Amino acid sequence: MRVDKRWSRVRWIAAGVLLLGATVATAGTWMRSEDESYYSMRLEYETADTLWNKNWERESMPCTANNWKLSQIYEYGLSYYHTAFGTLDLLDRNCDGYDVSGLGDLELGIRSRLDIFRNGRTWEVAAILPSGYSTSGKARLGNDRFGLRLGAFGRFAGQPRRGGEEGVALELGGNLHIWEGDASEQLSASGKVTLPVWQRSRLFGALEGDYALINRHAAAVDTSINPPIQYGYDKLTGRLGFTTKISRSWSLTLEGASVIIGRNTSDANTFIVGISRDFRE
């Protein structure tokens, strides 16, 4: 089959516009082979006793937030050109007696190739469905409204090491979140560098940014549990981590993250442990 490379270049230009316009990639960059499955489980603990206020300044919170999140991610290769994926979080949020547990938002989407000649360069669209939130307290388990996410991602690897193992790699990603009602549309972007340290193990560092497109009024919000999207928030987050293959199909990831600067968001530190598996049906 003959492939028009000019069409591939057009799609890359469109992806570049999205990435440059953004200021975090929430999904993967990888396309699954037909009938291939991928599963990931991530346990996150987030804590904060200070916040970034409406003027980009730190101030003390009235309580210490202690939040847990267990993320379940599943991907399935429909064909060479399309991968289906879904994400669902189990959440527990607590701050000064406001304690709530349950399901977070459900995300369902389709991923496709930006470059049909190689993997790791993709675009995707996902629907965000509200599945759990608190209507009686400050604690919020989800965004409490329907949304749409559009994303584009790319992975670029350097020269392979001796033995064929991948060398230094760069991952770039951008998302546009669109919400129903008066919630603030959000642009996000991320850049991630991974370095090989020994066989089948890598270190990585990343910067992630979130920027509210509308509702940027200087409203003071309660960020002790979850920054409400209707007010609009901005933040820059740094991440450091380690990932290793523990078998042919299983991987382990350890990660730490911290908010560097923000507006209308908590000054949180996050610790993550994750496992994932690639397998074919």
Average pLDDT for all residues: 82
Question: How helix-rich are the residues, as a percent range?
Answer: under 10%
Radius of gyration over C-alpha positions, nearest whole angstrom: 19 Å
**Sheet with most strands:** 12 strands, antiparallel, barrel
Structural class: mainly beta
N-end to C-end Cα span: 27 Å
Strand content range: over 45%
Order of helices and strands: HEEEEEEEEEEEEE
Shape: globular
Q: Count up the helices.
A: 1
Uncertain stretches: 1-26
Strand order of the largest sheet: 1-2-3-4-5-6-7-8-9-10-11-13
Instruction: Give the number of DSSP strands.
Output: 13
Describe the structure.
This protein is mainly beta and 281 residues long. The protein has 1 helix and 13 strands; from the N terminus they run αβββββββββββββ. The chain has one helix spanning 5-21, and strands at residues 36-52, 58-77, 82-95, 98-113, 121-129, 147-157, 169-179, 186-198, 201-212, 234-245, 250-263, 265-266, 269-280. The longest helix is centred in the N-terminal third of the chain and has 17 residues, at 5-21.
